[in-house]
Amino acid sequence: MTQVAIVTFDGFNELDSFGASTIINRCRKSGLDAWITTPTPTVTSMNGVQITGQRTMDFIAKADVVLIGSGVKTRDVVADDQILSMLTLSPSRQLIGAQCSGSLVLARLGLLGDMPVCTDVVTRPFVEACDVKVLDKPFHAVGSIATAGGCLASQYLAAWVILRTLGEEAVRSAFHYVAPVGEEDTTVAHVLDVIQSSTW
Amino acid sequence: MTQVAIVTFDGFNELDSFGASTIINRCRKSGLDAWITTPTPTVTSMNGVQITGQRTMDFIAKADVVLIGSGVKTRDVVADDQILSMLTLSPSRQLIGAQCSGSLVLARLGLLGDMPVCTDVVTRPFVEACDVKVLDKPFHAVGSIATAGGCLASQYLAAWVILRTLGEEAVRSAFHYVAPVGEEDTTVAHVLDVIQSSTW
What we know:
Two copies of one chain form a homodimer. Chain A has helices at about 15-25, 60, 75, 80-85, 100-110, 125-130, 155-165, 170-180, 185-195, and strands spanning about 1-5, 30-35, 40-45, 50, 65-70, 95-100, 140, 145-150.
């Protein structure tokens, strides 16, 4: 099984972490396993929902894919050397994605080089302060690193992970299922267009 | 504050419950408060994520809006008279919505009359067995009852709740924020078109 860590911090945005994990787990039978990965046994969302982590931070180094979720406390995360030291990411071996303020984590870890990123409007100035260019786009991927901006763009991160690990037919199948009824074909076409036109 | 119960059972689909609750809670400052409401202190999602409920089932009778989430155990829910007895819904006083297999709960409670519904492909035959017509659409609302089909249609339920309680400008504002970056205007227009063309 291809192991996917959905890194989820205290104050997390539920749409961001679950938007990716639920869609990726539609491919469990095809070999993808996504797990909510947390620095503490439980974390509480920005709207007060407490969840129990499924994997500890050790899992990140073993995972094949790591997606950094977003939330209202990411600026605390990037100021916390202990948490940052647990984020042992390896772009040469792993697919790495970040959602909204998760891009600030990748910037702070120095993983972006001269790659521009997508993020949300609130996080944008903090990412730019790291000398990283922010795009007016929902999704951008270069090599093994992808970023997405806007809560509902978490579906693009999920699609990118599925495309890179299982291929286009698996993307079509997963999105045909999760799409609004009657909007299956337009959803599949749009998602594939966004990620394929923004992958370098 | 307008109180919204997001009824969430064991085996729940994360996209369905959180797709609605996170977007509705974007309107907290405008007066909408959504809470994950569960029959047991904790419930575990279809992908094994344990969450702690924010409200007990007593909250349903007091809420202004009740959305029934979806999951892989809804057929157990509708066979459990004890759980059904906790679902004290009042269409004359409350807005009531159901996501995917949540429509089966409304059918079993006899709340639908001759109203057709939206649901997912797996649930469809079970809803039809209750003599309820299923539409090939993502969203349908009649009066105070709305149903949605397909995980990502949970955003339409959220939009309907915001439209009915706060009005169109609040829908525009919430979806402008949660939309993928660069897709704000098309997302807002599409969401409003879907719910306004399917509300009777």
